[in-house]
Specification:
By secondary structure, the chain is an alpha+beta fold. It has helices spanning 5-12, 20-53, 58-69, 95-105, and strands at residues 73-77, 85-89, 112-116, 119-123, 150-159, 172-179, 187-197, 203-212, 218-222, 233-243, 252-255. The chain folds into three domains: 5-53; 58-123; 150-255, Immunoglobulin-like, CATH 2.60.40.
């Protein structure tokens, strides 16, 4: 089938618009792209019609292999123990492509060997799975985690602890951790801090490690000693990680 889009454009135009400039414009804008698309479609149509005509018959399958892979092929029927046929090809080609092509066009359930040049390969029908197979599943409780969870609050404060109820702590910056109820595991916290002078833009990163012991619900700890008593420094929390986040009794939700 052949369509001349250049002539078709001219025939579809009203006679009073069939001017040289208008025709030239429409041929460039419409006719040429349509002609290119039609050629691609025609080639695809011919290829698809040929592939649809290929059957598992020996003469059809061999002709299709030779045409598709530009080679010389030969099919030898075997006794089916365990292979049903052998396909020999005179030269090496794309292994995956030739296997997919044979699998697509051979008779279903047939196993085969194929030889590419000096290399031989086999494809065997191994087993059949019943599509009506019914599988049974069961579920059981393995452990229970309290859905309420435990809320953890972490804060950074400037304390005058030397004169308060915790005389063992010095006056200065301290990290506070408070849980809504006693925890059921030892929780290890890694707190990343940023220290900077209120009069400059220089910052110093530091890291502190704290452990809130199982059975406790409160912890306070002074920060690195050289920052204890310097109230001209400003300290901010950058990041906090802790583990475990869940145990056999609770999960833990951190806020700071």
């Amino acid at each position: 089938m052949r369509i001349d889009f250049y002539k078709l454009i001219e025939q579809l135009l009203p006679t009073f618009l069939r001017k040289d400039r208008i025709l030239a414009f429409l041929r460039v804008l419409v006719a040429k792209p349509l002609q290119q698309l039609f050629v691609k479609f025609h080639l695809w149509r011919m290829k698809s019609r040929y592939e649809a005509s290929v059957s598992p018959q020996v003469i059809s399958l061999i002709h299709a292999i030779e045409r598709t892979f530009d080679c010389v092929a030969e099919l030898t029927e075997l006794d089916g123990k365990p292979y049903d046929f052998l396909i020999s090809i005179d030269r090496s080609t794309d292994l995956n492509a030739i296997r997919e092509f044979i699998d697509k066009h051979k008779l279903a359930g047939k196993s085969y060997l194929f030889k590419l040049g000096d290399a031989a390969f086999s494809v065997t029908w191994l087993s059949h799975t019943d599509e009506h197979l019914i599988e049974e599943y069961s579920a059981e409780w393995t452990e229970y985690i309290d859905s309420r969870g435990i809320e953890l609050n972490l804060s950074l404060t400037w304390n005058n602890m030397a004169y308060g109820q915790f005389p063992e702590l010095t006056r200065g910056w301290a990290i506070n951790i408070e849980a809504s109820e006693p925890v059921t595991s030892d929780l290890e916290f890694t707190v990343s801090l940023k220290v900077f002078n209120s009069f400059t833009t220089i910052t110093i990163p530091i890291e502190e490690t704290l452990v809130l012991a199982s059975g406790e619900n409160w912890l306070i700890k002074n920060i690195n000693e050289k920052y204890y008593n310097n109230n001209s420094l400003v300290i901010r929390i950058q990041d906090v990680t802790f583990s475990p986040e869940v145990d056999e009794h609770h999960f833990y939700d951190l806020k700071y």
